[in-house]
Every structure is written in C-alpha cells, then in structure tokens.
Write a structure and sequence with these properties.
By secondary structure, the protein is mainly α. The chain has a domain of 37 residues. The protein has three helices and no strands. The longest helix is centred in the C-terminal third of the chain and has 17 residues. The chain is globular. This is MarR family transcriptional regulator.
C-alpha cells in the first residue's frame, strides 16, 4: 500500500499545543487518502518521524501484535483505522 505524498506546505502556519502540526496533519492526510487497510509497517514508516526510531519500533511492534490477535480489523474486515474509525460500530 502506498500513501500519497504529504503536502508539507499545508502545515507551515499551523501550530497546536498538543499535536505537532506535521504529525497530526500527516495522520489525517493518510486517513483521507487511503482506501485500503493500514498495515503496521506502513503506519510506522509513513507517519512517524525518522528521528524517533524507538517510537517507530514500539508503534510497529504494538500494531503487529494487534494484527496478530485479530484486533486490527473491525466487523466485516474493515480496517481498524480509516474513514469510519470514529463511527460507532458493533464489535
């Protein structure tokens, strides 16, 4: 799966106290432009900063554990993170 390139110029004037602009907006960009399941490797490689290798490793490991347990997909095989993530769905 490939995530489209993120337009970095869109975050130059955005500041937020709790969410660094690039990380938050990259996540939103990926969710809006990806219509396939988001795998652990894709999420870790595309959305986390390269200067935080421990965070990438920990996030990738945690997501792989979720996938192995079957918790990474919701009903009917929909991705656990995606456009309908905030919509209520029976589990």
């Amino acid at each position: 799966m490939t995530i489209p390139p993120f337009p970095t110029e869109a975050t130059t004037d955005y500041t937020h106290r709790y969410y660094p602009p690039v990380y938050r907006n990259q996540v939103l960009w990926a969710l809006r432009h990806t219509h396939e399941p988001v795998t652990a490797a894709t999420l870790a490689n595309a959305l986390l900063p390269a200067h935080m290798p421990s965070a990438i490793t920990q996030t990738g490991r945690a997501l792989r554990q979720l996938e192995a347990r079957g918790d990474a997909t919701r009903d009917h095989g929909r991705p656990w993170i995606g456009p309908d993530y905030w919509r209520a769905a029976p589990r």
